């Protein structure tokens, strides 16, 4: 039974004022504000950001420990490869930067998986206007949040690290040479957030999204690479797998040793690796959208 | 489905357009679909400010709508800690943020205490009296009878009847209550004219299918003494059951 309560014709005049149709840019801005405030209202966002800030601080303080022994009369300093690896939160050794593990579940998958666990899609879609805009806003805000927090963490590490090197009497490293790998690190972080959001939309499960994102770079990709090596003629494909490509993009060493190469898992040039990873992230985000648009919000 | 939250066929126009074309749907429709849909860790204020930002209204509007629904003291509470009645009021506050022309509510009185039900009834009446529309779906027909100006009956997902409450009371026969020492004689007369007499107690019966005027005339014509005659208008529940029964039997 559906009851219609309408105004009594004798007592009230129907409100026929037509609402103003906002511009597309205004609608997008509102959707971004909505998602931004959603993240700001959660304690988990702030916990992740504070943890990142503390780790960045620690990273900077410990930078002098990365200094190599002085050669001849040269003053001891930190080599570019080690500097980059330290500022990237040991991206190669940990297979993904530690900052990624901190941020990706809060800013990447979080906005979408919350809709599954707490059924917030209804509010989002009725407020923002449509699913496409809501999905785009989630990815954009997640990516922007990841970029800003990663860049801030990086800057904090660099400033504290530079000060720590000065205090301990070590020479300043070649900061300008490290700019390229660090910039690529930031781009990888942004697209990692996009990939995580797309994956969350695709798998439609909070637990599955977290498990996939945890196991994929650490285990699944390695196992898949090993399986590929057994097939004649396709062994090279493992270099192009998403997270191997991402590590290749973030690598700061010009000629890495055998162990480091094994950890990276790819011999791709940094820019090629970056392009490959961004392409993967974009494809997954598109697939996530195709799944998301068919979702329902009962 | 009307709001685009579920997949399905058909089209719903709000003020002449599908909701998705309005870009800012909250200014057209406010929906309350079972409490408030938000993150349980968000405070009421943070949640409503977030929605206000998404709609594009100033955050001062949050205080206005919370005052409107009598929830101004609950701004700091988390959504997860709200009672059913409080969640319903916050849901209504959220729906009102965009100052919508249409309010859509699904089973709004479910789980509410009598005080909250009374408040909701007064609130919706005031909203409708301000020249706006309220679309309310419910299975609580007695409650709807007090509230609705018009009803639409859905059976198996299809609209099978649509009428105003005024027309309903005019066009549908209710039950005629009679008291007579010669009900046997009256039974035959009623059945001859297409009505049905149902004994409810000794010398007391209810007649359906005839109006009280017809029953009075028959009794007078055939010298049947009546000690009581009254007519109870058809309830919304009877209307619904009659329409829904017809629909189910026809398939």
User: Percent of residues of chain A in helical segments?
Assistant: 55-70%
Strand percentage of chain B lies at 15-25%
The largest β sheet of chain A comes out as: none
Q: Low-confidence spans of chain A: pLDDT under 50, at least 5 residues?
A: none
Write down the secondary-structure element order of chain A.
EHHHHHHHHHHHH
Estimate what percentage of residues of chain A fall within beta strands. under 5%
What's a quick, concise take on this entry?
Chain A is mostly helical and 298 residues long. Helices cover 67% and strands 1% of the residues of chain A.
Structure, explained:
The complex is a heterodimer of chains A (298) and B (251). The mean pLDDT of chain A is 88. Helix content of chain A is 67%, strand content 1%. Chain A has one domain. Chain A is built from twelve helices and one strand; from the N terminus they run βαααααααααααα. By secondary structure, chain A is mainly alpha-helical. In chain B, 39% of the residues lie in helices and 21% in strands. In chain B, the strands form four sheets. In chain B, strands 9-10-8-11 form a four-stranded antiparallel β-sheet, with helices on one face. A three-stranded parallel β-sheet of chain B has the order 3-4-5. The longest helix of chain B is centred in the middle third of the chain and has 16 residues, at 114-129. The mean pLDDT of chain B is 85. Chains A and B meet through strand 1, helix 1 and helix 6 of A and helix 1, helix 4, strand 5, helix 5 and strand 6 of B.
């Amino acid at each position: 039974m559906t009851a219609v309560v309408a105004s009594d014709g004798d007592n009230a005049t129907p409100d026929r004022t037509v609402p103003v149709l906002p511009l597309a840019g205004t609608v997008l801005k509102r959707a971004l504000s909505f998602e931004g405030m959603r993240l700001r209202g959660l304690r988990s966002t702030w916990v992740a950001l504070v943890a990142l800030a503390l780790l960045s601080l620690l990273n900077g303080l410990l930078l002098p420990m990365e200094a190599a022994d002085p050669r001849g009369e040269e003053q001891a300093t930190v080599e570019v490869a080690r500097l980059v690896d330290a500022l990237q939160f040991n991206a190669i050794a940990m297979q993904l930067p530690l900052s990624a593990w901190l941020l990706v579940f809060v800013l990447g998958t979080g906005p979408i998986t919350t809709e599954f666990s707490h059924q917030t899609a209804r509010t989002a879609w009725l407020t923002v206007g449509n699913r496409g805009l809501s999905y785009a806003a989630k990815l954009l805000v997640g990516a922007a949040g990841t970029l800003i927090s990663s860049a801030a963490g990086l800057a904090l590490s660099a400033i504290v690290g530079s000060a720590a090197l000065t205090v301990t009497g070590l020479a300043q490293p070649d900061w300008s040479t490290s700019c390229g790998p660090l910039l690529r690190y930031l781009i990888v972080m942004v697209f990692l957030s996009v990939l995580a959001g797309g994956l969350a939309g695709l798998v439609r499960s909070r637990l599955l999204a977290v498990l996939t994102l945890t196991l994929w770079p650490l285990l699944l990709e390695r196992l898949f690479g090993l399986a590929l090596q057994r097939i004649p003629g396709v062994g090279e494909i493992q270099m192009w797998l998403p997270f191997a490509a991402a590590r290749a993009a973030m690598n700061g060493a010009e000629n890495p040793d055998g162990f480091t190469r094994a950890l990276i898992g790819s011999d791709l040039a940094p820019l090629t690796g970056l392009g490959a990873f961004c392409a993967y992230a974009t494809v997954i985000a598109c697939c996530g959208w195709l799944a998301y648009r068919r979702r329902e919000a009962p | 489905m009307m709001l685009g939250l579920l997949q399905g066929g058909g089209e719903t126009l709000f003020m002449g357009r599908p909701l998705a074309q309005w870009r800012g749907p909250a200014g057209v429709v406010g929906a309350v679909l079972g409490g408030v849909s938000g993150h349980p860790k968000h405070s009421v204020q943070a949640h409503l400010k977030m929605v206000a930002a998404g709609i594009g209204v100033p955050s001062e509007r949050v205080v206005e709508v919370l005052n409107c629904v009598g929830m101004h003291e609950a701004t700091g509470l988390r959504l997860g800690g709200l009672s059913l009645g409080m969640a319903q009021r916050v849901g209504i506050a959220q729906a009102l943020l965009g100052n919508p022309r249409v309010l859509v509510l699904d089973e709004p009185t479910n789980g509410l205490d009598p005080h909250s039900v009374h408040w909701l009834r007064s609130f919706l009446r005031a909203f409708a009296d301000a020249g706006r529309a309220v679309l309310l779906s419910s299975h609580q027909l007695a409650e709807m009878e007090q509230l609705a100006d018009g009803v639409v009956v859905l059976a198996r997902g299809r609209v099978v009847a649509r009428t105003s409450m005024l027309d309903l009371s005019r066009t549908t026969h209710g039950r005629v209550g009679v008291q007579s020492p010669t009900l046997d004689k009256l039974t035959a007369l009623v059945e001859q004219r297409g009505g049905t007499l149902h004994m409810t107690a000794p010398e007391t019966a209810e007649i359906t299918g005839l109006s009280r005027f017809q029953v009075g005339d028959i009794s007078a014509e055939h010298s049947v003494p009546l000690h009581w005659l009254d007519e109870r208008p058809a309830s919304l529940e009877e209307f619904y059951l009659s329409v829904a029964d017809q629909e189910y039997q026809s398939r």
